[in-house]
Design a protein that fits this description.
The chain has 178 residues and is mainly alpha-helical. The protein is built from 7 helices and 2 strands; from the N terminus they run E-H-H-H-H-H-H-H-E.
């Protein structure tokens, strides 16, 4: 008699995390690809993105289980073990973020906050028209888009490796663990 393993749905990402994620994606894509630099809308979208990240940081300490940094903080050991399992072709099966995903998430949030800071500084007397600040802001924007692209590709690849639709999970909040 053969037993069939049924996929196990697990509620992973709460409504706050999902609204944060897709709102941040929207702010970033609009600011980089649609809205012209220097427009009021560009500034407000940047401030909204920074506020979203600050809110997510707070939620990382007080939120639901899989939203908390303590659940997925990418320590050296967690990253090393995760990479070791990947090299051996073993899926980790992390319910929440895997260590590399967590590292990317923290890097993306740092980039957004850095963009918010450099954008704001350009509105001050000290840095108004400062070429280095403008170039830094532009470089950070390009780094954010490149990192976000890598994040999206990695989510698709890891989803295939682990046989979990991670994009759907970020929409519905439910991961179907196989």
């Amino acid at each position: 008699m053969t037993s069939t393993h049924r996929p196990e749905p697990v509620r992973v990402w709460d409504l706050f995390v999902r609204v944060f994620h897709w709102s941040l994606v929207t702010c970033i894509l609009l600011n980089y690809f649609v809205v012209d630099d220097g427009e009021d809308l560009h500034q407000w979208l940047g401030y909204a993105a920074a506020a979203l990240v600050v809110s997510r940081i707070v939620w990382g300490f007080v939120g639901t289980r899989y939203a908390r940094f303590s659940d997925f903080f990418p320590t050296y050991r967690r990253i090393r073990d995760h990479l070791s399992r990947l090299r051996c072709g073993q899926a980790d099966g992390h319910v929440g973020h895997n260590p590399l995903g967590a590292l990317m998430m923290l890097a993306l949030m740092a980039l957004v906050l850095s963009l918010g800071l450099t954008g704001f500084l350009q509105t001050t007397d000290a840095f108004w028209g400062d070429e280095l600040m403008q170039e830094t802001h532009e470089w950070l924007g390009s780094a954010l888009i490149a990192s976000a692209g890598l994040h999206a590709v990695a989510a698709i690849v890891m989803g295939r490796l682990e046989r979990v639709n991670l994009v759907r999970a970020m929409v519905t909040g439910v991961k179907v663990m196989r």
